[in-house]
Amino acid sequence: MRDSTFKSALSDRTAKTFMGVLFGATLLVTLLNQIFPPDSALHVSAYTVTLLGKYLCYALLALALDLVWGYCGILSLGHGAFFALGGYAMGMYLMRQIGDRGVYGNAELPDFMVFLNWSELPWYWHGFDQFWFAALMILLVPGLLAFVFGWLAFRSRVTGVYLSIITQALTYALMLAFFRNELGFGGNNGLTDFKDLLGFSLQSDGTRVALLMATAISLAFAFVLCRWITGSKLGRVVLAVRDAESRARFIGYRTEHYKLWVFTASAILAGIAGALYVPQVGIINPGEFSPLNSIELVVWVAVGGRATLYGAVIGAILVNYGKTVFTGIMPEAWLFALGGLFVAVTVFMPQGIVGLVEKHWPTLKQRFMKSDSNDDRPSAQGEPS
Amino acid sequence: MSALDSLRETFRRDQVFDFMRQGTRSVSPGQLDAGDGKNILYLEDITVSFDGFKALNDLTMYIKTGELRCIIGPNGAGKSTMMDVITGKTRPDSGTCFFGQTLDLTRLSETDIATAGIGRKFQKPTVFPEHTAFENLELAMHDAKGTWHSLFTRMSGEQKSWIEETLAQVGLLEDRDKVAGLLSHGQKQWLEIGMVLMQKPQLLLVDEPIAGMTRQEVERTGQLLQSLAGKHSVVVVEHDMEFIRSIASTVTVLHQGSVLAEGTMDQVQNDPKVIEVYLGE
After folding, report:
1. What is the pLDDT of residue A383?
2. Which of A235, A271, A340, A371 registers the highest number of CB atoms within 10 A of its CB?
3. Distance between CA atoms of residues B232 and B32, nearest Å
4. Low-confidence ranges of chain A (pLDDT < 70)
5. What are the strands of the beta sheet with B39-50, ordered from one edge?
6. Which chain A residues contact residue B195 at CB under 8 A?
C-alpha cells in the first residue's frame, strides 16, 4: 500500500489518467495524419506531428528536472547539457547512417570532417554506426557525466545557489567546447542533414508518426518510473533530504548518495529526451548546451508545478505551445514574455498551475457539483499519496 | 623511539599477536564494545574553539553504560557543542572522543556515528515537515540505509507494528497520518524522540526535551526518559532544574567549556562553585 513497486505505480489512478490522455492525444494526431488526405479539413500535417513529438521530448526533459528539483531540491541550471549529450549521441549515429549520401560522397567520413581535411575517423566516433552502441551511449554518457560531476559536488556538500551556478558553468563550458571544430562534433554547425534511422527515412510521414509514438511511450514509461521512485522509500528519503538534509544525515542516511542517485537517474532521462528530440528536429548543434535552454526548462517546471511530475509535463507543453504561438507573432518579445512569466509564477502561484488548481479544486467542486468534498489534505503540496 | 625499536616492540619473541590466540579478541574493530561495567562514552581533554573563543576547554567526562545523565550549565557553557562533537558535526581541535572501547568518534562521519548507535534529538525540533508522523518514524527506522535497498524495500508487518508501538509510546498514534509540520511544538518534540528511538541507539542524546511543553507533557517525557535508561544510555541537556531533579541520578555541571561539578542533584546544588556560577554572576 505504501511502498510502490513498478507494477503498482503502473496501475495507480494518476498513471492511468496520465497515460490515457497522453496516448489518446497521440493516437488522435496519428490517425488524423494517416487517414485523412492532405486536402481534407481534418488532416493534421506532418509539421504538427513533429511539433507534438518535440513537445513530448521537452515534457520528458521537464519530468527529469522535476525529479531532481521538485523532489530532491537540487536546482540544476545545467540539465540542458545532459539533453544535448543524449542528442549528440543520437546525432552521431544518424551521421554514420548517411554513409556516402553526403555532399562529398565520402562513405568513411561525415561531411564536416571531409571539409576540415581530416583523413580518418576520430576514435570516439567508432561504434556509432551500430544502433545498439549509440543507444548505450545515450544512457551512458549523460549518466556518467552526472555521476562524476554529482559525486564531486555532493561529496563536497555544495548545495543551493552554488550548485546551481556550477551546473550552469558546466553546460556553458560544454557549449564552448562543442563550438570548437577540433573537438570533432561538427563545431558551430553541429550535426545535421540526417537521412534515416534504423533504415526508415526521416522525411516520411510514417517515420515521423513512429517517432512521435516512441516519444509518447518513453514519456509514459519515464512517468511511471518516476512515480515508482517517488512512491518508494527512496522517494521519501529524497524528500527528507530536500526538507532537512542534516536531520537525514543524523538518522543514518548518506544524503550525498541519495542526491547522486537521483541526479544521475535524472540525467539519463534527460539524455533519452535529447536522443528522441534530434531525429524529429533534424539537427543538433552546440546551441542546445546554451545556459538559456536550461533556464527555460526550469521555467517550464515552475509554471507547471513542482514535485507533482504531471505538473512538469503540463508546464513544458503549455509554455512551449505558448512559445510557438508567440514567436510566430512577435519573435523578439519572447524572452521578455518568458521572464515575465517566471516572475508572475514565482509571485502569484509558487506551486504552479497544478498547485493553483489543487488549491481551488475543493471550492470549484463544491460550486459546480454542490456536494461536499472529503479531501482531508486540501493544501497538500502535491505530494503523491 | 626509532624504527628499529618499534619493530622490535612489534615482533617481541616472548608474546603472541592477539589475533593468533583464540578467544582473546571478543570485539572486532568497528564494533561497539561497551559491555557491563564499562563506559559507553569517553570524552577526554576535548577542546573546541571558534575564532579564539573556547566553546569547550579540556572537557573530560565519562558516561556509563545504561546510565541516565543530566547535563546542566548556563548559556554558552558548551552543552550543545559537546553534543556536536559526539555526533560528528563539529571536530574537536584536540582531545579524544570514544564510543565504547573501539570507536573513535572524531574520525567517523555523522552518518557512521548514527549507524554505530548514537541518536540525537536536537534542541530545536527538526522533523521532516512534509512527511506524516508515521513516515517520519519509518525514515528513522533501524534498517539498511542504502539507495537501492530503499528503492526496492517494502515494509514488513513487523516493521509496521514496531512503528505503531513507538507512535503509541510517544502518544502520537492518533496523529499518525498527520503531516509533521502541522503538529504542535510538544508533539514535534515527542515525534523526534520517537525518531531517535526508531534508530535503536545505544546512546541517546536529548537536547532540551521539554521546551514548549505543558506540565502533563513534561511529566510524561520524564517518565519516558526514565523508562529508556537501563536499556539505553541517555544524556539529557536541560535548563529546567525541577525537571532534572525529578529524573536524574547523576548531574554534570558544565561551565565555560569544562566540567565544574558532578554528582547527585543535592551534592551539585550544595557545591559552592556551582552556587557561585549560578548565583554569583
Report:
1. 42
2. A271
3. 13
4. 1-3, 369-385
5. B53-64, B39-50, B94-99, B103-104
6. 251
Nearest-Cα residue of chain B relative to residue A260: B147
Residue written as grid cell 521539554: B210
- What pLDDT sits at residue B272? 87
**Cβ count within 10 A of residue B211:** 16
Please give the ipTM for the structure prediction: 0.80
Neighboring chain B residues of A259 at a CB cutoff of 8 Å = none
- A2 in B contact zone (CB under 8 Å): yes
Cα-Cα-Cα-Cα dihedral of A25, A26, A28, A34, to 10°? Answer: 160
The angle at the Cα of A124, spanning A121 to A126, to the nearest 5 degrees, equals 60
Any chain B CB within 8 A of the CB of A243?
A: yes
What is the residue extent of each domain of chain B?
32-280
| DSSP-derived 3-state class of residue A72 | coil
For A193-216, what is each residue's pLDDT tens digit? 888 888 888 888 888 889 999 999
* Residue B139 to residue A251, Cβ atoms within 8 A: yes
Report the gap between the CA of A70 and the closest CA in chain B (Å).
13
CATH for B32-280? 3.40.50.300
